[in-house]
């Protein structure tokens, strides 16, 4: 049997319809911008392999750090024990997170980082003896992961439909756009003034999975301000927006009012392996300082703070801080903006937008903008035939490259997008 036949026999892939005849692409190795396939193709990864990769594939510095760590301390229980990679990474993250962040809690991925954040917020009120604050506010269309807590605060659409009876109650507010600002603020006021809201969770400035929907920092600032005036804990899910994606280290760096809890993952290890981080303020942590065992935060995973993942993250962090990388982030942001200017007036383009290194365009189609828009089935193969990996969200095409991409390579992606627009 071939590898692909064996794949078909034995593997259930994520976010993939189980239909006969679908063949996955077999990747043999990856280096820099490119995936090398078993049939000899070289595919340009223009979406950073689901938004995780920062410095290109199989980066030698990260690979070296991983190999070295694996030979010295591969893993150890993180309750009662600690290790240098976890401490060093925590210090590094705190050095670039806003000043109000004081502690790093490790978990396994983006979903668990959000689970930890929600539990941390709920128990904060529990430990304080407040039994009223049980509500959560989130944005319509949000995505915070695929575990139950994360699904509960996310979009109630086709993806969560089978689980809707099992998701906890959440108050959703529309994402702010020009025209509905007063309405959203009014609704937010009403919700938080009840003194029943434990937390407000949001993807700052960009709702990624919703289709790279962008909104103004000034607006989020207003919401956080109102939340803080009413003692509501603000959770910034920067799982996607962290580590330079929006042009600054964190999307929250565009805000004046700082969130209380941050969730990080995806680019944290440079996209090498899974690791999640939830950081919190000293005030939140204070609610847990007690000799009463009931006030302990009883949450942890077997692989919490895995030393190899921490070592990969430290290597990725050092690469991110290099001047070359920071310049590249500026360059990519510039190129993306130029391309947006160029194609924004195209008759097939409904909307185009850029924030930092993130570019997105919404195609005009017969049906509404959504993930299940049929045009997706044409777009994905169109780009793959040109050896470019783009994975449109319905009729939304986005370009999200690793920071090592060269102008020439990005132009190749832009040409393919233009060719696609002409072909419609
Ligand atoms: C991807 C993503 C998550 C989930 O992260 P996983 O590591 O896939 O569990 C959560 N929040 C946001 C904003 C994301 O983009």
TrEMBL record:
Compartmental location: Cytoplasm
The protein's Enzyme Commission number: 2.6.1.62
Named cofactor requirement(s): pyridoxal 5'-phosphate
InterPro entries: Aminotrans_3, Aminotrans_3_PPA_site, BioA, PyrdxlP-dep_Trfase, PyrdxlP-dep_Trfase_major, PyrdxlP-dep_Trfase_small
PROSITE patterns per record: AA_TRANSFER_CLASS_3
UniProt xrefs under SUPFAM superfamilies: PLP-dependent transferases
Pfam families xrefs: Aminotran_3 (PF00202)
Keyword Repressor found: no
Entry GO MF terms: 2 iron, 2 sulfur cluster binding; adenosylmethionine-8-amino-7-oxononanoate transaminase activity; dethiobiotin synthase activity; pyridoxal phosphate binding
UniProt: pyridoxal 5'-phosphate binding residues: 110-111, 237, 301-302
Residues reported to bind substrate: 50, 143, 266, 300, 391
Modified residues (N6-(pyridoxal phosphate)lysine): 266
Marked site (Participates in the substrate recognition with KAPA and in a stacking interaction with the adenine ring of SAM) residue numbers: 15
Gene Ontology CC terms: cytoplasm
GO biological process assignments: biotin biosynthetic process
Quaternary structure and interacting proteins, as annotated: Homodimer.
Family, as annotated: Belongs to the class-III pyridoxal-phosphate-dependent aminotransferase family. BioA subfamily.
Function text: Catalyzes the transfer of the alpha-amino group from S-adenosyl-L-methionine (SAM) to 7-keto-8-aminopelargonic acid (KAPA) to form 7,8-diaminopelargonic acid (DAPA). It is the only aminotransferase known to utilize SAM as an amino donor.
Name of this protein: Adenosylmethionine-8-amino-7-oxononanoate aminotransferase
Organism: Marivirga sericea
């Amino acid at each position: 049997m071939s590898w692909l036949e064996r794949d078909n026999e034995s593997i259930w892939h994520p976010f993939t319809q189980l239909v006969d005849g679908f063949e996955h692409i077999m990747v043999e190795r990856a280096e820099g911008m490119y995936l090398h396939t078993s049939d000899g193709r070289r595919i340009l990864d223009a979406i950073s392999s689901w938004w995780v990769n920062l410095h290109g594939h199989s980066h030698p510095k990260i690979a070296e750090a991983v190999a070295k760590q694996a030979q010295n301390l591969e893993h150890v229980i993180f309750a009662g024990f600690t290790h240098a990679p976890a401490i060093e990474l925590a210090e590094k993250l705190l050095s670039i997170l806003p000043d109000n962040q004081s502690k790093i809690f490790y978990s396994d991925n983006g979903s668990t980082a959000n689970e930890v954040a929600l539990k941390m917020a709920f128990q904060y009120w529990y430990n304080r003896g407040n039994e009223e604050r049980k509500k959560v506010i989130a944005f319509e269309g949000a995505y915070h992961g695929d575990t139950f807590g994360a699904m509960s605060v996310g979009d109630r659409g086709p993806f969560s439909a089978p689980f809707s009876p099992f998701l906890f109650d959440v108050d959703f507010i529309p994402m702010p756009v020009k025209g509905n600002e007063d309405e959203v603020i009014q609704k937010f006021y009403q919700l938080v003034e009840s003194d029943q809201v434990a937390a407000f969770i949001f993807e700052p400035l960009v709702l990624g999975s919703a289709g790279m929907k962008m909104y103004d920092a000034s607006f989020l600032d207003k919401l956080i301000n109102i939340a803080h005036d009413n003692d509501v804990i603000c959770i910034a899910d920067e799982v996607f927006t962290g580590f330079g994606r929006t042009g600054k280290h964190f999307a929250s760096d565009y805000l004046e009012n700082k969130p209380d809890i941050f969730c990080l993952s995806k680019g944290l290890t440079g996209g090498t392996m899974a690791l999640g981080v939830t950081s919190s303020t000293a005030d939140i942590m204070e609610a847990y300082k007690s000799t009463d065992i009931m006030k302990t935060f009883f949450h942890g995973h077997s692989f919490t703070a895995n030393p190899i993942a921490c070592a990969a993250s430290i290597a990725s962090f050092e690469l991110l801080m290099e001047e070359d990388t920071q310049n590249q982030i500026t360059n990519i942001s510039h190129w993306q903006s130029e391309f947006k200017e160029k194609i924004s007036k195209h008759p097939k383009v409904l909307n185009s937008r850029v924030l930092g290194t993130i570019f997105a365009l919404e195609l005009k189609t017969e049906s509404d903008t959504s993930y299940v828009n049929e045009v997706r089935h044409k777009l994905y193969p169109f780009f793959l035939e040109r050896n470019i990996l783009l994975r449109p969200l319905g009729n939304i095409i986005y370009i999200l490259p690793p920071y090592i991409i060269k102008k020439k390579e990005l132009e190749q992606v832009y040409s393919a997008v233009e060719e696609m627009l002409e072909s419609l």
